[in-house]
Description:
Layout: H1 22-29, E1 33-37, E2 40-43, H2 45-64, E3 68-69, H3 80-92, E4 101-110, E5 125-135, H4 138-158, E6 163-167, E7 176-184, E8 190-195, E9 201-203, E10 224-227, E11 239-247, E12 250-257, H5 264-271, E13 276-277, H6 283-287, E14 304-308, E15 317-320, E16 326-331, H7 333-336, E17 341-343, E18 361-376, H8 377-380, E19 390-397, H9 398-408, E20 410-411, E21 414-415, E22 426-430, H10 436-451, E23 456-458, H11 465-475, E24 479-483, E25 491-496, E26 501-506, H12 510-521
Helix pairs in contact: 2-4
Amino acid sequence: MKQSSLLIPDTHVQLGTKGEDPSQSLLVNAGFLGAFQEQQYVFLPLAMRVIDNIKSIVNEELEQLSAVEFQLPVQSSLRGEEYLTNFLLKEQMASSIELPIHLYQIQTVLDVKTTNKTAFLPSLESTFLDVFSFHESQMSLQENYYRFEKMFERILMRCELAFQNVIAFSESIEEKQTKELIALSPLGDTVFVTSTVGEYRAKLDVATRFVTSKKSHATYLPLVHEKLSEDIDQESGDWLTYRLLRMGKQPIMVFYQSNDQINLTKLRHFLGGKVVEVKKSETEKYFGQALEAFDFQKLPEHVMFLGDTEIENLTNVKLYSPVKGMYYKNVNPLREFPTAQYTDFLYVKEGDLAPDETGTLVFQKGIKIGEMHQKNLSEVSDSIDGKHLSIGHYQLDLSRLFLMIAHQHSHESGILWPMEVSPFDVHLIPEDLADAYQSQLVEEVEAVLVNQEYQVLLDDRELSMVEKVREASLIGCPIVILIGKKAVEGIVELKISASDASIEVRKEELMDTLAILLQTTE
């Protein structure tokens, strides 16, 4: 491929939506992306070659799992699960189709509601891989879920992407066993936790810690409701606080230690419904008492009490009162809230003990690029004529994956693409094609490389060698071959970008030397 044919813009302009990620500028300057309008950008030919290489990896891996391709119209691309479910249940269940069956589409997804604010380029559309597996039993689904999970991990490893596969919650209550694939980046908008020793990985809103709640043998002291004086130490660790919430019309009073933070996502999944804060003006409506005269001991029987696991066996602690300037002294949760349910509904903190007790939790950041979950249709619908269907849904954002590979493999002067996804394997750069010796050597070297199935980009432009090398660094092919004045001797300069190794070699020795240098790099 001649570089002059690649539609690489000469003007290095920024995209309409600027991010904090330096690789954004590199992608534009190298000619991978072009500006279009806000939250939209153009994938130029170099980018399309990278994305096509990613698709090739995806197709190879899916073929190993006997997945077959289908494709919905773009405007209906988000409805793949709905369409396939209805198709299998209503039209083909009685036919010759045998389960399990695996189907996938690679399709552009339009999301006009996107509001993502991120350091990386936001977009109203992305190219997604959507894989669906359909099963007659939960056991079959579970087995295949593990296989697809490993397949996604192989895809990302072949792309040389640093990532984590983390436990997550789905937006839909019906979706179980949800995991997300997170590309690592300190600029990411997704926070997750990892264990310093074990294999525990989870998004912040689902992460748990190891909790012990040992019973105390201390004597319960009388409960006192008194004024909060200035000499009371409010920084000590024996203070409880509360939140007044509701699920629909059900009022909920939640108790936890004051230095912790409540996690409404965990509460939503524990209770199986949406949980919201009760406004101060609505306290009497839901709890039967105005906030200024609130007394938890006199609440209606239908109020639900929830407590964090750690506070269940605490004795004689303090509790902030809803009444301004007051507090409760000698609070004993098992005595004061005998009907309370205790569970983990708090955000973890860095340094907490991991739930498997193998290490402590540390926080990391990244960008979500994929998601996997399971669903048993018999649990969410009773209108399928008694048929049961277990579904696995596995999704990968290929556009975001492209951006994150560039982000992780960028450096000051360009992007160093991994071999399997690079737009070209070799960047062939002659100093002067008008020179007969250089022109002849270029033809010979290119023919040898193509014969060995290397993808070659030939810089055929009339620029200085300095300019060509600078732009080659921006494009980031793994192998660069320079041909200059020593062409008369049949000598080229071979560079392996990953190791920065450089060596002059005769044309007859090029392929053997290249094989050795690539093996050393690996």
